[in-house]
Amino acid sequence: MPVTTLDCLPFGQQALITHLTEKATPFRRKLLAMGITPGCRLQVIRVAPLGDPIEIEIRGFHLCLRRSEAATIAVEVCHS
C-alpha cells in the first residue's frame, strides 16, 4: 500500500498512521499527547474551505490540525 501524508487525503478517507516524519520534531510531543501514534486508524471528517485546518476523527474524538502539522503525519490509505 502506498504511504502518503495526512494533508493529502480527501474528506471521508480513512487511513492508518504509519509514522511521524522528521519534520514533526518541533511538535512531536504535542502530536503524541493528542493520541496521534503509529498504528491508529483515523478518518478525515472535513477540510476548511481554504484548506486549513483539517478535522479528523481518531480514537473516538474529533481533532483539528493545521495543514503544516498534518503534512508531518505519514499514513497508509485504507480501502474499506
Can you walk through the features of this model?
With about 80 residues, the chain is mainly β. It has one domain: SH3 type barrels (Roll), CATH 2.30.30.90. It is about 10% helix and about 40% strand. It has 2 helices and 6 strands. A 6-stranded antiparallel β-sheet has the order 1-6-2-3-4-5. Strand 3 and strand 4 form a beta hairpin. It starts with a strand and ends with a strand.
Strand content: 35-45%
Q: Specify the oligomeric state.
A: single chain
User: Total domains, how many?
Assistant: 1
Q: In which order are the strands of the major sheet placed?
A: 1-6-2-3-4-5
What Rg do the Cα atoms give?
11 Å
Computed structural class: mainly beta
Shape: globular
Largest sheet: 6 strands, antiparallel
Mean pLDDT: 89
Gross CATH architecture = Roll
Number of strands: 6
Distance between the termini: 13 Å
Helix content: 10-25%
CATH homologous superfamily heading: Ferrous iron transport protein A (FeoA)
SSE string, helix = H, strand = E?
A: EEHEEEHE
What is the number of helices?
Answer: 2
Key phrases:
80 residues; SH3 type barrels; mainly beta; 12% helix; globular
Task: Kindly summarize this structure in a few lines.
The chain is mainly β and 80 residues long. The chain is built from 2 helices and 6 strands.
Give the helices and strands, then pairings.
Elements (H helix, E strand, L loop, with lengths): L2 E3 L8 E7 L7 H6 L7 E7 L6 E5 L2 E5 L1 H4 L2 E5 L3
Antiparallel strand pairs: 1-6, 2-3, 2-6, 3-4, 4-5
